[in-house]
Amino acid sequence: MTTSPVFLAVALSLLSAVCYATAAVVQERTAARTPDLRGALVRGSWWWSVLLNATGALLHVVALRYGPLTLVQPLGALTLVAAVPLGSLAARSRTSGTQWRGMALTLVGLTALLTATASGNAPDNTLDATEVVMVALTAATVVAVLVRVASGRFALGGLAFAAASGIASGVGSTLAQKLAVGPALSWNVAVVTVLTAAFATAGLLLSQKAYRSGLGGPLALLTLVNPVTASLIGITLLGEGFQYGTTGTLLAIAGAAAAGRGVVLLSRPQPHHDHDSFGDGDGDDHPRLPRRPRQAAAPGLRPSRLFRTAFASTGRMRPAVAGITGTSRVI
Q1: Against a cut of 0.85, is the pTM above it?
Q2: What are residue 183's phi and psi, to 5 degrees?
């Protein structure tokens, strides 16, 4: 009995999302107990999260071997869906009503997209050399413009950086599919490999810049721009499309809108939860003494601006780990 390529693509995407989500929760809780990256490097839990991120990236690339960009890339939003219950379980806290609505909308939207894009066939067409150069130059130009806008002290600078990061990550996934589906080793494959690494790295660095203005808005925009970019390339250059004609197209648009709304809800900051009563798996945790009440800041002094996270946090600077393709994972 032969397994459908689309079934394999969906299953691998689900496993990839679970790996990414688990890594995010582990890193968040590890980072909450370490003031910098050096402190995280000595904790076994942080290295487990690195392994999970690498596994998620590998599964994502393999999924692109069996499914089209219009199917695999949107499923990356499942990382947020999986991270919410895992984060609540780790923090022993309840999942909020907003989070439940976000998960429901995201799942409904992705189901609609899956119905419209699951053709049953593995991708057999990839970008040729000319298209690779054209896509890379176009993406690099758009990213450069967005970075310039974001650097010009505009109010929406963080969102511009997030859009640039989503484009870079989406192009990286598109090129990764060529590596997974394309021919044997050649100079062309070598060039694509370098471009894939370059766009993936750019996506990570730009997302770091985006999150300096907060997490909610930039995370939602990045998560949406990534699959939109990859899907546009798949539809315009690779001949990917939707099933059932006009009905399938409308179903895909409605699904994308519902999933987008769900991502926005899941990206909203959640109430603070204390991490101190739980260990990180290293065996070196001890009961904590009660904290002293915080004193009010002296007049004229401003508290330092700290990164925020979609999960519970103590507000310290976080180390970052990125997947090779797909949505950048910045913790």
Answers
A1: no
A2: -75, -175
